[in-house]
Each structure stands twice: as C-alpha cells, then as structure tokens.
Amino acid sequence: SQLRFERDGSDGNTTVIDVSTGEVAILTHARKGRDGSALETFATSVDGRWMVFLTRDEDARERVEVFSTRAPYEGAITFRLPTSMDARAVAFSSGGEELLVFDDSCEATAEPGLEVFAADGTPRASIRGVTAPYVRMRDGIVATSASRDAVVWIDEVTWRIARVVTHPTTCEATTSTRVYRQIDDGYEERNTYTQKTVSCDEFGVERVGVRISLSPCETILASTCAGHDDKVLFLWPARALEHDDAPLAIFLHSKPIVDFKWCRDDRVDGAARLQFVCAGDAAVYSFVPGMLCPVRSALECAEFAPSKIIHASAEPDALIIKGKGKTFVQQRFPLSVM
Fold first, then answer.
1. Residue among 73, 53, 54 nearest 2 (CA)
2. Per-residue pLDDT reduced to its tens digit, 61-85
3. Could you give the C-alpha distances from 51 to 60, 69, 124, in angstroms and in order?
4. What is the DSSP string of 161-216?
5. Are strands 140-145 and 170-172 parallel, antiparallel or unpaired?
6. Average pLDDT score over residue span 113-142
7. pTM reported for the whole predicted model
8. How does pLDDT run across 128-150, given as a tens digit for each residue?
9. With CB atoms 3.0 to 4.6 Å apart as the test, which of 13, 215, 275, 329 could cross-link to 220 if both were Cys?
10. Nearest in space to 166 (alpha carbons), one of 150, 185, 184, 190
C-alpha cells in the first residue's frame, strides 16, 4: 500500500499520507455517536487494498463508498443505505468480500444492529441487537449489545451470533472466576460480586456503551459497561465457542475506568499486558495474564487526572496518557510532562 492512515480518536479525523509523494490529506469526520464519541466512518480492508467511507449525499442520504488505496485511488463501488438506517460504523469483513455497517438510529423504538452487504451492495444479513465498538478475531467479530449490557461473538461465515455473555450483577467467586475489590493502593479478595445497575447519568439520560478490548494473543477479552457505572472491569475467555459464560475475573474499582487498552509485551508470559486508567486517580493500572489482580503504579504528578490512553506500544514505558490539558509518558522510572 502506498497510503498510511493515522486516526485521531479525539475528533474522528483521519490523516492520509501518500508515502510515494509525501502528499497529506485530512479527512474530517465530525459526526458523533449518541455517547459523544467519534463515529467510525472510515476503515481499510485487512489486506490494505481498499478503503471505505460513510458519506452523505446532497439528499442527506447515507452512502457507502469504496476506493482503492493505490494511486490513482479509483472508486470501486458506491451504494445508498436505506433511509431508516443511521450508520455508526463501517468495516470490511475479514475476507474482504462483505461490508459491515453498524446501524444505531436515534429513533426511540429503533433497535441497533449490524447490516451485512455483499461487495456489490446487495444486503446479505441483518443481526439485530449488536452495535459498535467491535474487535476482529481470527474466526469472526466480537461486538457489543448496549441494550443487554452484553458482549456478542459473530460468525463471519454464517453471519449468526455464536455466543453472548451478559455482564452479571451478581456472581459467586469460584476457582475459575476471581473477584477483587480495590482498597487504597491494592485489592482485597471477595467471595461474591454484587453490583447495583446504573444505567442513567446525572441528567437522567440513559447511558449507552459496552467497551471491549482484545488481548494480542486473542485469549482474553476485557470489557466495561455503562450499566455498571464503568467502575467494574470484566475479563472473559475470548474463544467464541466457550461454554462457560462466567467471567474469568471481576475487578471492582472505587472510580470509573475511563480508558483501557491491551498491548503486546514479549517480556511477560502470554506477551500481553492490559493498561487502564481511572477518573480522578493519578495512577496507571497494569494486568498481565496469570496475575491474580492488577498492579497500581502511581503517577509522579499527584494532581494529574488521566482521561485517555492515547498510545500503548510493545514497551510498557511507552504508554502515553492524556488528562487536564497535559500529556504524560509512562516510563520505567519517574514520569515526565510533555
């Protein structure tokens, strides 16, 4: 591919750089989801040959447009979406033969869903109840269900739901499910997990959003959900056909978890590390598969309130965190302000 794509998660802009000529273009996506996040209105195919955009025409009808990523970037196909759709995200299937559009209309009676189209724009499948965000696995897609506070595994061959796990409000700690509650700088083990469901914000508006992140080795899925006030982190076995619907671990925090990301780390078993930050907590939490509970690392600047992890590389000391108008770089030694 002669193009390099860089996403800006804060406003949804995409920077497209033509490597051969150095030409730079900024693709602006100002549309926002109901939860205020930028919509995923742009994606590239797994093999890097194609890019797809969600656009609107002069009649305010939403369209799907596919272009080549190689000069002269010719258009491959364009088709209109039904008037009843309000597209939240677009993606290619793993095989590149289908186009996936996540529909999430603002109509009060509407149900979100995944609409699957063949390469020529012909509707192929409709899976109601699922919505973005999503992650891609070798054998399918893992998406979310905001209405059920659930995580959904979708088979990309049959375009059917293979597995659904719902975030529990009560759960017994067992040999396969660990429950820990944060206390001060550490955690205490608990025999049971009980959570009062919180589904509205301080203005009484229903909150939407199940967030997910898949480990690089595709063995563990981390998730949070607004229905639990975002203070609970769940870990699940990532296999699509796993029959045990109980989570591997549940970690209860005193403050909402504002962002979390898996990154590859070849220096630890499993080569995976989960990093997350909590609102109003000047610390970074780190979890490696095999650990009983996360480890808290305090930031040097006590008044710093993390709001987003904007980069997590293979090196734990390359973690970049934003908050309060500042950017911190997590280092092996004390942190520095950029």
1. 73
2. 888 999 888 777 788 888 988 888 8
3. 22, 6, 20
4. EEEEEEPPSEEE--SS-EEEEEETTEEEE-SEEE---B-B-TTSPBP--EEEEE-T
5. unpaired
6. 89
7. 0.81
8. 888 888 888 887 899 998 777 89
9. 215
10. 150
